[in-house]
Amino acid sequence: MTELVQDIEFINTNERLIFINQQNKSQSFNIEKTSLKINTTATKVHDNERVLEKFDIKGIIGTVQLVSGHYLMVFKERYEVATVVGKKIYQMKGFTIIPFIPNQQSLVNIPDQQSEEQHLDMIKWVLSSENFYFSYNYDITHTAQRIASMSEQEKKKPFHERADSRFFWNEKYIQMFTSHGGALDAWTLPITMGFVESRKLKGYNFTLISRRNLNRAGTRYYVRGIDKDGNVANNVETEQIVEISQDTFTSFVQIRGSIPLLWSQFPNLKYKPSVTFYGKDSDNSKYCETHFNQLLDKYGKVTIINLIDRKGSELKLGEAYENIVKNIKDTRYIWFDFHSICKGMRYDKLSLLMDQLKQDLESYGFFYMSQGKVVKKQTGVFRTNCIDNLDRTNVVQSLITRHSLANQITQLSIPKDTFVGSEFEHVFKNTWADHGDTISTQYSGTGALKNDFTRTGKRNFKGVLRDGENSVMRYYLNNFKDGFRQDSFYMFTSKDVNLTENKNHESKPPSPLFWVFIFIFIALLVSIFYLPNPTAHSASFLFHFVYWVSTILASMKLMMKYQNEIVDKPTLFKLESVYPAPIKSSSPSSSSKKNK
């Protein structure tokens, strides 16, 4: 397998884009801007060429074609975040997007130029998350067990050929480089979104890697449930690795993902939008079975941990889920009503859930490699979900991996006191808390709720206040920003989007909100200049109280009336096209009961 180029000198001339390996100057290639022809012979700037810019880069993200032409995406900086089996993993920093032709947007008409600028803004928004990771010599898209299970022929393939397409976020942008018979394999770098962190504990290496599935990627309320190909929203694979040396280590994998049914919860200014079910019972069963067949093929047996409430619309979701998966082989369904059982901040009751999982933890085991030889493999996986697959899910996943860790250190013959005590608690809890915040920010726009428990092992008043702050911010983002964010995810990941077309994300005009604010402002003026002083006597205070309650209620009624004009929605694809026609006020399970 060819090791990837790590340090690159980039030269942008009026004719070509030139890339030179700084560690081996004879290794280079260039792209002719007009013909798009790639040459891999020794490169130097011609006498008649004019150098526009010259700087060092650490990797190539790819190229993208928009209305006016092609753009090159690269990054200038990297930050080391982990070492796995002696190989370094980096976080991508300092991306830049370079047009093939200077001022090429000026060559198109104004509407096309505006569309292109917005497409660039969307690409920049996705890349600016700073949650993209890569390695020059470690296949970050695969778990250690999958890598060990590859044939020798497969292991010799370049990373971009053998990478897991679920986690290969720049796959559609490297086509210009992969069509040259392997000549540019050393320059083609797979990048994945997620979370990576590695810590040292008394000479041992503790690493957490999460890979975010790009299929059905998006924002918290606009992407829920499953699609016809079995992909679910907020699907993340998380791997915990414990190493005592480069060839002796253990790995434990678990996953999270949205409830695999056809359902949505589109934002509508309500704090908690209602759940809508879609499609026929046969569709829900088919797509759900497809999803679990994929999991069974990749991970072995599946233990489903459903943490949603046993009331309201979540109850219908849980019942429909249970009704379908009970007929799928090699799966076990556990419904643990997190909020009800742990109410009053009684998180110690999570031990009840762990008691139910104990047998499967022992049965599934973990991947273990000793002195370069595979000793045992993980034979099953825990699939955890709550309604968002964020807050409750992260708490439970951290507990599951803690219990697996006890078995891992026993297998590795690591002294048990290595993974106990204040030093370990600080490393373990803060790593998982950082993980929770990162995954939550990618999906909801804010850090995780309940993360004080993950970070300290206790719930406290300060954590509750932080949860309130994050909840308010989530409400704002979900209703007023997520349309653009969802279009950005869809545009970046979907292979069906033609970026050479003039198609904008059409933000909703702020006029309805403007008039609501005017209404409140007038009410404030009336209160100041015309109403009696509220401190004068109790009747005046009561009048003011009724006045402002009425004003707030009237404002909320106005906002709800014009919610379709206020809420920022995705426009690159229609929400109605995501699913078949909705099933009114029923769930798949309830409709099936009616049909019996």
TrEMBL record:
UniProt keyword annotations, A-Z: Membrane, Transmembrane, Transmembrane helix
Q: Which GO terms describe its molecular function?
A: phosphatidylinositol-4-phosphate phosphatase activity
**Keyword NAD recorded:** no
Q: Which GO terms describe its cellular component?
A: endoplasmic reticulum
Name assigned to this protein: SAC domain-containing protein
Regions that span the bilayer: 513-531, 537-556
Would the keyword Transmembrane helix be found if you checked this record's keyword annotation? yes
| A GO biological-process term | phosphatidylinositol dephosphorylation
* Pfam families tied to this protein: Syja_N (PF02383)
Note the superkingdom of the native organism: Eukaryota
The upper taxonomy is:
Eukaryota, Amoebozoa, Evosea, Eumycetozoa, Dictyostelia
PROSITE patterns xref list: SAC (PS50275)
UniProt domain SAC: residue ranges = 123-445
